[in-house]
């Protein structure tokens, strides 16, 4: 495999009650209970961009607010490979998967600050607060291992 990994950031955004924001992919609107229909905010890192800056930019772009503070940065770059059926199609066909720097953040705003309707082509069409331990069951199969790591390593932030 000679395709590179796409460098990305991801946000595990905790509210005051220790729940995590998950959002439903707009391209999977009928996937209410299906794995992969719900995910954490994530996105690419621009060339030369600091991951800590990128995570706030991605929050603003994907959920309409960057009202948060960083609690922790995962020490490892976590990566996944796309399944063969998605190679050459997903991620613009230019990547084999993603390598991601994940952050635990505390949401400092109000629920009304979360706005999925600000982007003319939103990635998400719904959002909700979920228990951290739900994450692996919400993830599409090829991202499940990452969500298991996040649920384990960021568990200390899931307390109000």
From TrEMBL:
Pfam families: NUDIX
Keywords recorded for this protein, A-Z: Hydrolase
Transmembrane intervals: none
Domain (Nudix hydrolase) ranges: 4-152
Enzyme nomenclature, EC number: 3.6.1.-
Record-level Gene Ontology MF annotations: hydrolase activity
PROSITE patterns named in the record: NUDIX, NUDIX_BOX
Motif (Nudix box): 43-64
Cofactor(s) the protein needs: a divalent metal cation; Mg(2+)
Record flagged with keyword Hydrolase: yes
Keyword check for Secreted: no
InterPro entries according to UniProt: NUDIX_hydrolase-like_dom_sf, NUDIX_hydrolase_CS, NUDIX_hydrolase_dom, RppH
Record-linked PANTHER family: NUDIX HYDROLASE 26, CHLOROPLASTIC (PTHR11839:SF22), UDP/ADP-SUGAR PYROPHOSPHATASE (PTHR11839)
Function noted in UniProt: Accelerates the degradation of transcripts by removing pyrophosphate from the 5'-end of triphosphorylated RNA, leading to a more labile monophosphorylated state that can stimulate subsequent ribonuclease cleavage.
Family that this chain belongs to: Belongs to the Nudix hydrolase family. RppH subfamily.
Name the record gives this protein: RNA pyrophosphohydrolase
């Amino acid at each position: 495999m000679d395709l590179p990994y796409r460098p990305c950031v991801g946000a595990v955004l905790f509210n005051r009650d220790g729940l995590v924001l998950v959002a439903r992919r707009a391209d999977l609107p009928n996937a209410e209970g299906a794995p992969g229909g719900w995910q954490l905010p994530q996105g690419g890192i621009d060339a030369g961009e600091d991951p800590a800056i990128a995570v706030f930019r991605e929050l603003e772009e994907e959920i309409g607010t960057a009202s948060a503070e960083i609690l922790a940065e995962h020490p490892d770059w976590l990566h996944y490979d796309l399944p063969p059926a998605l190679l050459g199609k997903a991620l613009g066909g230019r990547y084999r998967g993603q390598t991601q720097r994940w952050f635990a953040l505390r949401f400092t705003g109000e629920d009304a600050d979360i706005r999925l309707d600000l982007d003319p082509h939103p990635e998400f069409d719904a959002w909700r607060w979920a228990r951290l331990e739900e994450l692996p069951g919400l993830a599409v199969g090829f991202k499940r291992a990452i969500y298991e790591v996040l649920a384990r390593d960021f568990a200390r932030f899931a307390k109000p």
